[in-house]
Here is the input.
Amino acid sequence: MKKIATSLFLLSFLSACTPLTREEQLALFHSRCVDYGYAQGTQEFDKCLARQENRHNQRSIRTRVNTTDNLNFLERETLRQQEIKMKEKQQSSGS
Here is the structure.
């Protein structure tokens, strides 16, 4: 059990650095379902694997959306700063 927990910790730590391959993701899902007590080859085990993959996909979508939102925020902020500079130039040239 300690080996599995250690490997999960290392995989999660490494996943922050580099994306996991499909095989590594499946191995992680597999080890989680085994840890949850599901017996391999059962429908419950297959459902657990499907839930793990679904959660992973949902997390990936949320990450992409958050990244897009952050980029949109940065773009809006850049435009806002440019507008402020333009107004300041207009005011200084108009005075």
Q: What stands out?
A: DSSP finds three helices and no strands in the chain. Residues 23-94 form one domain.
